[in-house]
Amino acid sequence: MWLSKQMRPAPPTADADMGMTTIAGGQTGVMTRGEVRDLPVYGPGGYVWLPENGKTVLVIKGGPGGEEQCVSGMRQKEAPRGMKPGEVYLYGPKGNSVYLKADGSVELRGGRVDIWGSLMINGVPYKPCTCGEGSL
Questions:
Q1: Where in the chain do CATH 2.40.50.230 domains reside?
Q2: Are 57 and 71 in contact (CB under 8 A)?
Q3: Beta-sheet pairing, 29-31 with 35-36
Q4: Contact (CB, 8 A) for 39 and 29
Q5: What is the pTM of this model?
Q6: What pLDDT, in 10s, does the model give residues 82-114?
């Protein structure tokens, strides 16, 4: 009886490790000390990211014995020159990016930018120029 009161389950632990993604997409697999599959991927609110194959990611381990694991992110790229605290820079493959600047400006880069829905410019609906159409 006395001994059973002295033995308590191990408290939950938290640990982290770097790993290499082995399965990309929604069924993320990561090789740390061994391969673990179907890990959930966590990120900042409002941001969806699926790690690519062969990328180094941070794996957080928790629960008793560290058996509960998740991928939480990867090392950031170098910040753009002149980036200020509080600014946000999202980047994707092939150089496309969204840069939210402290002065209120937004910089979009990409091979092609698609806009779905209404486009407002200074609070006025955008109307493409029809200059020269219909006249010979």
A1: 15-73
A2: yes
A3: antiparallel
A4: yes
A5: 0.63
A6: 999 888 899 887 888 999 999 999 999 999 989
